[in-house]
Amino acid sequence: MNHGMSKTALSDTLQCEKSSLPQPNYLPGTYKEAKTFISPFLIPLEKYDACVNDCIVYRDSGALLYSDLSDCPVCSEPRKSRKIFTYMPLGPRLARWYETPNLCRLLYAEKLQVRRDGILGDFTDGELFKSWFEPGEIFENKNPESCVPLSLFTDGVNPNKNSACQKSMWPIMLTWITLPPSIRQLLGPMLLMGIIPSGVNGSEPKSLDPYLSIVVDELLTLTEFPVYDSYRSAPTTVKVALLQYLCDIPAYSKVMHLTGHASLRSCPYCRETGHYCKHLRKTIHISNRQFLPFGHPLRSASGFAIDGQEERSKPSPYTQEEENRMRTQYELKPNKTQKANQQKSTGLKGNYILQQLPYHDRMRQMSPDGMHTLADFISHLMEMLVGKQNTQKVMSCEKSFGRFDEVWKSAAEEQASIDRPKKKKKRNVESEQTLVDSTPWSLSKEQIKTADERASSIVYSHSHEITPGPHFTKLWTLRTMNAKLQFVTSGAFEWCIKDLLPISQERTLEHICGVIRRIVSPKLTVLDIAQLQADTHEALSLLERDFPLAIQNLTTHLIHHIVDDLANYGPMYGRWLFPYERANGWVTRQCLRKGMEESTVMETYVIYDWCVYMILSGRFNPCDLSTNEKTLVKTSQQIMEQMRDGFSVSSQENHTKKNTTSQITPEMRQFMMNFYLLNLKLSTVQFSSEVTENYSTLDITDDCGRQIRYIGTRFKGRREPSIVKLPGSGGLLFGRICFFLEHVLCGAVQNWVIVDVYPIAEKVGKYFLFQESVLGQQLFHVSVISRPLVHVKDRGVWIINA
Predict the structure, then answer these.
(1) SS3 sequence, 260-316?
(2) pLDDT tens across 417-439, in order?
(3) 711: helix, coil or strand?
(4) Measured distance CA(412)–CA(340) in Å, rounded
(5) What pLDDT is stored for residue 628 in this prediction?
(6) What DSSP string describes 505-531?
(7) What residues form DSSP beta bridges with 282?
(8) Under a CB-based contact definition with an 8 Å cutoff, are residues 402 and 408 in contact?
């Protein structure tokens, strides 16, 4: 339960408990004794010797018989100077899941929760998932509950807290796609298969293929996997397949032998070729207008890097046959020079181990990494706004394309007027020197100060990770990638730069923020995707026109592919890498042994995996109330709720402390009865005459599985009381939550709020403004109020994300 406790601390705690209990007792007194006690229930681990240069793993696989070799057949390194790869098999874990009644029944329960047609809420709602069950596909004629589609994640992590001491090891994780996101994104059900050890002197492994081959071989043996189905109380055959890959661009390059993000053929999703800019000394991607439909006004507009009419069509991807042929050609090249030329022209480096899967199709099963892409894109925008693109390199780039004449000409005049010192430093810093304080794409010093003041005055809700601060001068105050995304999706970014940029640039950034907000939405409508794609391609084209080409990197280009893949892969919300990054963080915290850190992690994970299984299956229920806030316990409670025959009328959850109970007034009773009859379509049988008052917080779970916390006026914390939008008056009515009421109807808890109502708001542009004077209090059901809103107090209250 407390995975932050060390083994020594656990041993001390057990010894204290053992000595306190009546003697004799069977409580283990140390960590070692406790592990021995549960060892029969743990999944057994497999350990393999590996070549120190990552050439082979010493095991027998098909025609390759390496288990008895004493030297590596590739590099001739002796086996004694080896690395050890610890592997946790997949088959026993899948069999355990199907054999457990509660967990197996969950697979069938999810099938009953059919989403409305036209709504995409997860990857399983997308076109790609549905195509797997069509004739001729991998799961043809199989029921979804008898299929185990998996996704793979891997990334390099540094287990050392000292970043100066670099050491890169690669955890391999699989996730079960058809499990609900709240379960499959937990570390326990997130299947950690093994950790690839680092190379010589802590460097990255030279190749991942020898280690991934162990996963591939087991997947091939599990293609038709017999298990006992505890839901049907009968044996069945399960089909297992690895059909999705979730990695960032560097990991994709290493796993699937692709070129890096700095090359001309760096995009792994299309045949687009970048442009190498000698002034910036990097590759830029100026193909945004190619994604626009023919006849679009921007295809013939001026101000773009490629002047004149854009006649090129949208870049197309390689077919699987074309890619396999080019990879084979790479392997047949006689020397490194010819291979490098082949790689430069195609973006492919040769064959890789995952191609041995008979159903593998990289272009269909590989989706863009939205988390890193959007977070890095936002960072680039903010760095541009504070003047980091006002350098000689950027000016020279714009001059070479004939753009922003007034900027680079004035910069050249200003540079010429500077008196040069007689002695120059050896290090040339001219290319990084800021030439002008303000450009059409950046803010002046006074404007940056204004933006920081606005960013410091914003009041966020409890669900936001952001804290107010000078985010423009101190970009590190947006510490996490999620905070960067929330800074844009909450409307805070647009509020901070309001009226500070030229009209054209400000409108373009508003357009960009609008499409990002829609891209990261946890729910999408199929009919709206086409318009979202058109708006995104147009917004990125405007970004190319109105801002410097220095930000037209691979990150910007990948946003085109993110929106184009929404219909196939579903919302980004179900494919975020945030849970995997948190899992990587857990891995690094378990690296205790110096030199072979990954070995201790797998020994710890096999115990953690069993503990998670015991909790999720309901065989162990934590009785400590202090653990109720943990995600694992909450998820277990949700599973147990789904296993019951009846479903609660209200999906809200309230884990806060109850204060007082009072009788319902006649006016309140009449209001509640009318609401129940009109909205819940329920009779008023078993209508409780009492309500329970709570003055602190209320936690509910929306239909996307996200937790929302409402805060009352008496909450003792850093966050202010929640301001919400109220029904009626055309959406111009807002209020501040005072306290909460719980009312029982037909055995189900209904949550109500008492709200201080403010005067009707005035719409000023895209924002709402009202005075902070309370007109009175009203009662509202929690289902009719909005999520807590982000606001600013400045001669009134401004709502910036209504």
Answers:
(1) CCCCCCCCCCCCCCCEEECCCCEEECCCHHHHCCCCCHHHHCCCCCCCCCCCCCCCC
(2) 555 555 555 454 444 556 666 78
(3) strand
(4) 40
(5) 45
(6) HHHHHHHHHHHHHHHT-S-EEHHHHHH
(7) 277
(8) no
Residue type, 632: L
User: Helices 554-564 and 370-385 meet at what angle, rounded to 10?
Assistant: 130
Q: Provide φ and ψ at 366, rounded to 5°.
A: -115, 115
In whole angstroms, give the CA distance from residue 496 to residue 499. Answer: 9
Burial of residue 412 (number of CB atoms within 10 Å: 0-12, 13-18, 19+): middle
> Are residues 489 and 797 in contact, defined by beta-carbon separation less than 8 angstroms?
no
β partners of residue 690:
663
| Cα(297)–Cα(37) distance, integer angstroms | 72
pLDDT for 380-391, tens place per residue?
A: 999 999 998 888
Q: Which of 77-81, 200-204, 788-792 has the lowest mean pLDDT?
A: 200-204
Collapsing DSSP to helix, strand or coil, 477 comes out as helix
Cα 799 off chain centre by = 27
Six-digit token pair at 109? 């329960």
Nearest to 433 by CA among 487, 425, 735: 425
In sequence order, what are the beta bridge partners of 227?
A: 236
**Residue-wise DSSP of 392-404:** HHHHHHHHHTT--
Between 667 and 553, the higher pLDDT residue: 553
| DSSP state, residue 116 | P
How far is 558 from 293, CA to CA, in rounded Å?
18
Whose CA is closest to 224, among 235, 213, 234? 235
Neighbours of 382 (CB within 10 A): 20
Strand ranges in 564-686 using DSSP code E only, listed in sequence order: 660-663
pLDDT in tens, 715-731: 777 778 999 999 876 77
Nearest CA-CA partner of 240 in 256, 227, 224? 224
Q: How many CA atoms lie within 13 A of 578 on its CB side?
A: 16
d(CA 207, CA 58): 15
Task: Mark out the alpha helices in 390-502 (DSSP H runs).
Answer: 392-400, 405-416, 445-457, 481-489, 492-496
* Cα 533 from Cα 563, distance rounded (Å): 6
Candidates 772, 558, 781; CA nearest to 677 is 781
- What would the two tokens of residue 103 be? 């967990």
User: Three-state SS for 378?
Assistant: helix
What's the pLDDT at 307?
Answer: 85
Q: CA-CA distances (angstroms) from residue 64 to 309, 386, 469?
A: 57, 57, 59
Can you read off the two tokens belonging to residue 537?
Answer: 């391609």
Torsion of CA 568, 569, 572, 576, to 10 degrees: -160
Angstrom distance (rounded) from CA 483 to CA 792: 18
> How confident is the model at residue 3, as a pLDDT?
62
**Three-state secondary structure call for residue 136:** coil
Distance CA 179, CA 109 (A): 10
Q: How many CB atoms within 10 Å of residue 217?
A: 15
CB 52 within 8 A of CB 79: no
Query: Distance (Å, rounded) from C-alpha 737 to C-alpha 732?
Result: 16
Q: Which 3 state secondary structure label does DSSP give 221?
A: helix
**Residue-level pLDDT at 113:** 44
Helix axes 526-546, 554-564, angle to 10 degrees: 160
How many other CB atoms are found less than 10 A from the CB of residue 736? 20
In the Cβ-directed half-sphere of 39, how many Cα atoms lie within 13 Å? 10
| Pick from 545, 475, 217: nearest CA to 483 | 475
Per-residue pLDDT, averaged over 35-43, amounts to: 93
Domain boundaries, the chain: 1-40, 86-246+577-633, 370-411+433-575, 650-799
Name residue, tokens 């074309």.
Answer: 322
What is the C-alpha radius of gyration for the chain, rounded to an integer number of angstroms?
Answer: 29
Q: Which residues of 494-525 are buried (b: 16+ CB within 10 A; e: fewer)?
A: bbbbbebbeeebbebbebbbbbbbbbbbbbbe
